[in-house]
Design brief:
441 residues; alpha/beta; Rossmann fold; 8-stranded mixed sheet; 18 helices; binds S-adenosylmethionine
Length: 441
């Protein structure tokens, strides 16, 4: 890969989506930027308090310093990569890829039985889906004794090598969210990034790997909330999953990684600095000082915990061995293979959400900074499983008014960025729209 001259690099986030992410604000950047600019004191820092993919962070850092925070570690990785993308010289990326290829080859040799079984299952899936279904349901090496004898034997023969090689992604998620081959390739890249030049914290390379995992995962919605269910509750095979799973499992991680490095190399660094932290909103608010002139807040609004939907990305970012939570009321590992001790957001818990918003507004008031709050009325949950909102716009404006003298609500449409006034807040207009609540004194 060749170095890219600064003037050729993409100047804004306009075409850049680092991962597939529920509720990301990719389509509303102009409006959010304008709302923030309107209320922020000139020259002050913006705090992106629930940064997620960090696409808003990147846009805000075009015109002011940004503190980018989120409770999930992958968000800080993305924030660093989107604001200070590193351009890998040709020899650097070749060296990472060569290390990965070598590690992948050795690991594939040690896990042949499992890979062979998977190749047969994929080759035969349309006529005989049983083995691929078995792999999707019971393929994780963290789960024992639930698959067919054939699958359990193949897993047993691979287990020791995968533990010794620290192949966490293959061991936990192989077969279930990715093919075993894809998972070995993801592990090989994680290994290569870890040892490259001793700089194990290179955010751009890890962000590129997050992009690959988000592209390859074989689930509807590209998230990790639950694996494909190949059977009905009565145990009959469904058919609608075979073609999409086969398509996703054809994806190749190493070429995709190279393509993601090139995408990051095409991004211009932001003119202003970004400090990226992994932190709960309360601890972030407790550390903010007088340099901060505006808070942009885009918290969750449904019962869907982001830590459940994107736990595999968290494991890639943190590079740890997370363990697996047990399924509710059982001693079996959770079907989604969630990380132990994953974060439970008060914004996604009905009995805690009102207090959580009160804390948010009260702290913004204490700091004497305006707050720009995002609210997406219709993008609740996923298409397949819509979720109702735990708070209404009226709930929010009423809490905001207890702390701020001026509370304005605007509706922003993604395509035209046109604005409607409060009276237009009906379901038709809200369709794909975004609501911004701006509270100031
Ligand atoms: C709607 S998403 C933000 C999307 C983001 N604006 C974007 O464009 O990608 C909500 C985010 O809040 C984060 N979050 C949830 N609870 C949190 C908490 N208590 N403290 C900090 N972040 C939290 C989630 O990890 C998630 O990334």
């Amino acid at each position: 890969m060749s170095e890219i001259a600064t003037e050729q690099r993409v100047p804004t986030t306009a075409e850049f989506r680092p991962i597939q992410y529920m509720g990301n604000k990719f389509r509303f950047l102009d409006a959010i930027d304008a709302a923030v600019a309107e209320v922020a004191a000139p020259g002050t820092t913006a705090c992106d308090l629930f940064a997620g993919t960090a696409v808003v962070t990147r846009r805000l850092a075009m015109s002011r310093p940004v503190l980018s925070a989120d409770v999930q570690g992958y968000s800080a990785v993305l924030a660093q990569a989107l604001t200070r993308p590193r351009v890998f010289a040709g020899r650097e990326s070749s060296s990472i890829l060569e290390t990965a290829r070598q590690w992948q080859m050795e690991t594939e040799r040690m896990t042949q039985d499992l890979l062979h079984l998977e190749d047969l299952a994929l080759g035969d899936a349309h006529t005989n889906p049983a083995t691929l279904a078995d792999i999707l349901e019971h393929g994780s090496l963290a789960v024992s004794g639930r698959g067919s004898h054939q699958l359990e034997d193949a897993k047993a023969s691979a287990r020791t090598a995968l533990v010794e090689r620290g192949a966490t992604l293959t061991r936990y998620y192989g077969g279930v969210y990715f093919s075993y081959r894809q998972a070995v390739a993801l592990d090989s890249l994680r290994h290569a990034i870890r040892i490259a030049d001793g700089d194990e914290r290179d955010a751009t390379a890890i962000a590129a790997l997050l992009g690959v995992a988000s592209d390859l995962v074989s689930t509807a919605g590209s998230h990790f909330a639950q694996p494909i269910r190949p059977r009905t509750a009565a145990g009959e095979f469904k058919r609608n999953w075979i073609t999409p799973v086969m398509r996703f499992r054809k994806g190749q991680a190493l070429p995709a990684f190279e393509a993601w490095l090139a995408k990051y190399a095409s991004l211009s660094p932001t003119p202003f600095d970004c400090t990226a932290v992994q932190a709960d909103y309360q601890s972030t608010l407790a550390t903010l000082g007088s340099e901060v002139g505006v808070i942009y807040a885009d918290p969750p609004y449904t019962r869907d915990h982001y830590s459940r939907f994107y736990h595999v990305l968290e494991t890639i970012a943190l590079d740890d061995d997370p363990g697996i939570t047990q399924a509710q009321g059982s001693s079996q590992p959770s079907r989604g293979l969630y990380r132990e001790k994953r974060h439970q957001s008060p914004f996604s818990i009905r009995t805690q959400v009102t207090m959580a918003f009160r804390e948010l507004f009260a702290n913004a008031r204490r700091l004497d900074v305006p707050l720009v709050l995002s609210y997406s009325p219709m993008s609740a949950g996923t298409k397949a499983r819509p979720e109702t909102r735990l708070m209404s716009i009226d709930d929010l404006t009423s809490i905001a008014s207890e702390y701020f003298a001026d509370v304005r609500t605007t509706v922003v449409e993604s395509s035209s960025h046109s604005r409607f006034n409060r009276a237009d807040l009906n379901a038709e207009i809200l369709g794909e729209a975004e609501v911004l609540i701006v509270a100031s004194n």
